[in-house]
């Protein structure tokens, strides 16, 4: 926590009504956490209060916590006769469970007046997940909310035109959800007999992709070079 972020966090706490939101200061990033019921009031306060003046919404994204703290793979840091392990070991490894709704929406706010940034986070409860639209507060939320709806399936109540923006017509599912397969559900190919492109169930078998693992190698450690022992005559041996 830096002095600037701590000062900004104190300013934000003083600008919001008590009990309306929680203000966190972690990694030099001020985060305001609130509920879906209070997010509109918090957003208006962050925009209109002279102490914060977040005039611009520069980004909005969805978050899926369904596999938070869990992993399908684990690698070993120890060398073995067969080298470093990059095989998949199924199961949870030191998983940290997420408490709360599976989905959340994160807003990145910018104050042009004060030259500071504030992160606003709101859980998206329900099935399907839903939060109020911010289009009436920040016009730039329009396409951002359509993107979050398209990729995560999060609904934004009050949005003037909530429809897909990136995926193709007739696309099924939401590709940024953790349970959406990397290979997708359908594949396309040109059928000469029909003279058109056809859609078929995907033929690729799902698999776990293990990313490249970069480890510290003792061969490249830069250790302190010991000072040469003094020669018998008391001078340093430069040989």
Give a verbal description of the structure.
The structure is a single chain. By secondary structure, the chain is of the alpha/beta class. The protein is built from 3 helices and 9 strands. The chain has helices spanning 3-15, 39-48, 141-152, and strands at 22-26, 29-33, 56-64, 103-111, 116-124, 130-132, 155-157, 186-191, 196-201. The strands form 3 sheets. A 5-stranded mixed β-sheet has the order 1-2-5-4-3. A hairpin with a 4-residue loop joins strand 4 and strand 5 (116-124). The longest helix has 13 residues, at 3-15. The model is unreliable at 90-95 and 227-232 (pLDDT under 50).
Question: Count the helices. How many?
Answer: 3
Structural class by helix and strand composition:
alpha/beta
What is the approximate shape? globular
Number of strands: 9
Distance between the terminal alpha carbons, to the nearest Å?
A: 50 Å
Q: How many strands, which pairing sense, and closed or not: the largest β-sheet?
A: 5 strands, mixed
- List the secondary-structure elements in sequence, H or E: HEEHEEEEHEEE
Q: Percent range for helical residues?
A: 10-25%
Question: If you compute it from the alpha carbons, what radius of gyration comes out, rounded to the nearest whole angstrom?
Answer: 26 Å
Instruction: Strand order, main sheet: write it out.
Output: 1-2-5-4-3
* Mean pLDDT figure: 82
Low-confidence stretches: 90-95, 227-232
* Relative strand content: 15-25%
């Amino acid at each position: 926590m830096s002095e600037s972020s701590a000062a900004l966090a104190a300013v934000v706490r003083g600008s919001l009504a008590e009990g309306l939101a929680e203000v966190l200061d972690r990694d030099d990033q001020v985060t305001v956490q609130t509920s879906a019921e209070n997010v509109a009031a918090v957003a208006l306060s962050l925009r209109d209060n002279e102490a914060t003046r977040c005039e611009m919404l520069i980004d909005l994204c969805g978050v899926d916590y369904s596999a938070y703290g869990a992993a399908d793979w684990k690698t070993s840091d120890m060398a073995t006769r067969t080298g470093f392990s990059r095989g998949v070991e199924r199961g949870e490894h030191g998983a940290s469970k997420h408490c709360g709704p599976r989905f959340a929406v994160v807003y990145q706010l910018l104050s042009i007046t004060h030259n500071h940034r504030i992160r606003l986070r709101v859980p998206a409860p329900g099935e399907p997940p839903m939060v109020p639209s911010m289009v009436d507060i920040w016009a730039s939320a329009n396409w951002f909310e359509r993107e979050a709806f398209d990729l995560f399936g999060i609904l934004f109540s009050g949005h003037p035109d909530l429809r897909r923006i990136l995926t193709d017509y007739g696309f099924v599912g939401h590709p940024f959800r953790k349970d959406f397969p990397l290979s997708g559900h359908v594949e396309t190919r040109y059928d000469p007999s029909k003279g058109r492109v056809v859609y078929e169930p995907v033929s690729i078998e799902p698999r776990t992709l293990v990313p490249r693992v970069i480890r510290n190698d003792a061969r490249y450690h830069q250790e302190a070079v010991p000072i040469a022992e003094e020669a018998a005559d008391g001078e340093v041996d430069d040989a």
